[in-house]
């Protein structure tokens, strides 16, 4: 990512540098060459439509090149590759809480493996924050009430600044941390310590405790939709719309279940607003994901989603090993 | 009255027809109201500048050691609010525009003189409220009032600051309304649209934005107050609101507001460059229409402030594309000003030095805008010092240079006194050098990743050198701003009396006496010539260009 952004940046430096040079040279040359001299009156020139068209059209095309290049870089930066390692980010005044899919929790420090795509699923407990890692040329605002997604791919081991880039109150400038990029082997060693089990497993526990399984059964008899194989797929709603079952949809379905009811079901689910914390929501989402992720891991299970998810068999784990 | 240094017999003019506080506070003369505005915005400029100075001093060292974190947050918030709403937005329109718009089109006054006075009173009420807010604790939301921080989390005087800006908005709307009606209805015979000075075109475009944009920020601030005071769920997701809705509404006004600041400045620059090149502006109609184009396109680019805020990728693509469309008319203006110099007869009086300064700084400010409109780069540099540097190049480098250039250009007309030219040239140079030293390092800081609104950067001490340069520049810049303040005041008492047209400039405002009479002209002028007829003027009075020296 950093390379792509820097290439465009250098291109822009050259283009704008040339434009600046052009204007400055012309202004300075004209100012000196045509300085007032007695007896030499100014020559009146009304304008030139040809010139006007030239300096409207040429900049316009230059701008379009910049626009397109910028758009391509942006599009890449906004689209996390499949099979990224997932990290859940909860921001609050004034700290970063980070949770790996494997269960490791960190504060203001994030350990990631070198050479792997890392996807961040981020939300805030209070005001708007922004996850900014200058070395990766990557920034994404973190909002309360929904998830925003970002990703990066670190190529060199080391410790990099993590900043909050959206002003968030008194200790805004204290909301800083480090991204620690490790060699894959070191990272595995680091990961093997201090985990309480994968995030999806805690999610499964919460799923059971809250009684979700009573309705969301793994057959077709439940009062709620079967959640197996749902995540990341299109879902048809009661009102006929088709939406993609992403993190934001699962979140909304837990906190505001009546908002988007799946076709064929009644809006009978109570809201869990205020009953689950952001961290518990993340665990639940990791669990719902794990019910689908077993699929792409192997061709054998891909066609038979109903027998795929032995609970706790986390697909995220599966992609890790690849 | 001993007028030891004045002309033998002082002619009757708008300054000496009446004396006493009442004659000023109840005046409906657009020129006196302009001076009321001049005094008020200068006051707020120095308050905003004082905050800036404290900000720069705090950033001299990485640790947060000069002020508390909360104090720092209030400083940058109130620096922004005071400078944007109480200085930059009223600056050129309410002072130079008020003074010159009627005179330039050959009118006796604005269309609604009493509404003009009302707009100043609204500004003063808003200003007193803002001062009260500042003195009793201040506000810490950033000038952007982002929700839900402003509505549910900040413990400071958000409502009071919001109301102050709400009221100042009406002052701005009334000024815009007055200009539009005046320009439509009160042009002297023969003053057709294509003969209007470009200063008038610029103010016409500005007025459109003031009328169409300002109500939106007013409504938005009312909604912020409603959520904060009554907990109506509008912007805070916990109450069922949407924080991005606030950003859309805020920038719908606040992006065009940048053009409220820069367009009048462009108008000044057109007048100054024409006069000191002794030439008609190259491509008059393109420069005039580009002002209107900027006003229109300016309303379609607001979400480029939100590329990382959580808007969809496709919305971002469209707003990036549209942002480049507004860059074209700005570029067209710069090229036309440059071409105007070609084969001119160029003088280097202080107003022209400011116009040169404007050209340089606005070019850099505009071109760095191309970086920010490029999606892939914006992700990295938004909310860093790169953005801070960019908009200061536009709003201080552009708008303020134009304002100072205009103040020097029309000072003889406004006061009937000449300012000291040598000091003025020196000040222009100091401002230019100080400005670049302050803000150029911030582009580098931003690309290196220093986020804005950080009071303490001890986590990244590597940023100190550039911050020290910036603070040093700010000190120089401060001196550059104090100088004109001092010699302008000095010249009001001790300056040489100004002739009616010291620059031998085109434009109706120079055909009346300095300072003008209350109703500007003895008889209504009839216009039979095109704007910027410098060839005719110089033929009639060769070698009478700069009597100031």
Could you please describe the fold and organization of this structure?
The complex is a heterodimer of chains A (322) and B (549). With 322 residues, chain A is an alpha+beta fold. Chain A has 3 domains: 1-13 and 54-69, no CATH class; 85-191, Immunoglobulin-like (Sandwich), CATH 2.60.40.420; 199-321, Cytochrome c-like domain (Cytochrome Bc1 Complex, Chain D, domain 2). Chain A contains 8 helices and 12 strands. Chain A has helices at residues 2-33, 49-78, 184-191, 199-209, 247-255, 278-297, 299-302, 315-321; strands spanning 85-92, 95-100, 105-107, 109-113, 117-124, 129-133, 138-142, 148-153, 158-164, 177-182, 234-236, 242-244. In chain A, helix 4 crosses helix 6 and helix 6 packs across helix 8 (315-321). Chain A is elongated, with a radius of gyration of 27 Å. The relative contact order of chain A is 0.11. The model of chain A is unreliable at 295-322 (pLDDT under 50). The model of chain B is unreliable at 1-7 (pLDDT under 50). Chain B has helices spanning 21-25, 30-58, 69-104, 113-135, 149-153, 158-185, 198-230, 243-277, 284-297, 313-341, 350-373, 375-381, 385-415, 421-448, 464-494, 534-540. Chain B is built from 16 helices and no strands. Chain B has one domain: Cytochrome C Oxidase, Chain A (Up-down Bundle), CATH 1.20.210. The longest helix of chain B is centred in the N-terminal third of the chain and has 36 residues, at 69-104.
